[in-house]
Amino acid sequence: MTIKNISLAGMEHSILVTGGTGLLGSHLLVQLARDGQSVKAIYRKKSSISEIEQLFKYYGLVDKWNLVDWIEADIGDTDSVVDHMNGIDQIYHCAALVSFNPADAEKLYHANIVGTRNIVNLALEFEIDKLIYVSSTAAIGRNGLNDEISEKTKWVASLENTFYAKSKHLAEQEVWRSAEEGLNVAIVNPCIIIGPGSLDRSTGTMFSQVLNGLKYYTNGANAFVDVRDVVDIMIKLMYSNISGQRYLTTAENRTFKEVFMLIADQMNMKPPSKYASRFLIGIAWRLEKLRSIITMSEPRITSETARASHRISRYSNQKIINALNVEFNPIDSAIKNTVDYIRFNQ
């Protein structure tokens, strides 16, 4: 259960990581600390930091924990970040709000677009060496067909685009604008990232669903990737001469049913066996919306996630393979790593 090692000997940098308590940001901290890099990491909820410390324990890096300098800040408020920018020469901008609840449209705009605008403006002001921005496959255009989607696929305004996708697309425009103003940038567009983390957030919910006896599956498909691979690519891009490029970081195109079957197998749980049709999913999200209104809680399924569960999206990873000679971990390995972490915490 090791993260791929990149030798950074003799490369001392002052690094800022936004979104340090997220699935990707936390694994980035693990990798950087493993290589002896001191890092400033932004957090918003102090309670999340203990989860990241547990992740360091899982990877056998307790002695590296003090290399992370935690900073309480809100990237939506420039004043809360600016005092920590002195001496920074590299930024990994991982922070983002991921939500497929249409009610969160304003929050998505503030966190993903305004937050990114603030970070790139600070990067320009303090003349940092390079910024790696974590976008999403959601920000890539859709061709309306089942053909593989690549970096060349054009963005097209559509009702099929979620509010999250729109926010990430517009956030990318802020990054490209900063590049026009002289900032050295590269963008990664991960797909569905699998790796150790909270069972209440991100793809951790896929594992909790299986633990809770998931019965239904759909015929939708998407791309999946090991969190360790995305981190590996981000660091390689940071230390490369590549600038002004975006890369789909995807390992395997799989159906949701296949992935849930793999998770169930690794967890020794019964796999989902009942097909949830579009009609059934349509009823489910409407009932869930009613429940969330009555209980004033977040819906567990929305109209956007219902549509996505049956959508077939396939992505090409050829550009990043050609650029960095990447070899992706199989998704089975990412799932095993996550299950091992769950058992480590039991």
In short:
By secondary structure, the protein is of the alpha/beta class. The strands form 3 sheets. A 7-stranded parallel beta sheet has the order 3-2-1-4-5-6-10, sandwiched between helices. It has a 3-stranded mixed beta sheet with strand order 7-9-11. Strands 8-12 form a two-stranded parallel ribbon.
List key phrases describing it:
41% helix, 12 strands, 7-stranded parallel beta sheet, disordered N terminus, 346 residues, alpha/beta
Q: Which helices and strands, and how do they pair?
A:
Layout: E1 15-18, H1 23-34, E2 39-43, H2 49-58, E3 68-72, H3 79-82, E4 90-93, H4 105-125, E5 130-134, H5 163-180, E6 185-190, E7 192-194, H6 204-211, E8 216-217, E9 221-226, H7 227-238, E10 245-249, E11 252-255, H8 256-266, E12 274-275, H9 278-295, H10 303-308, H11 318-324, H12 331-344
Parallel strand pairs: 1-2, 1-4, 2-3, 4-5, 5-6, 6-10, 7-9, 8-12
Antiparallel strand pairs: 9-11
Helix pairs in contact: 1-7, 4-5, 8-12
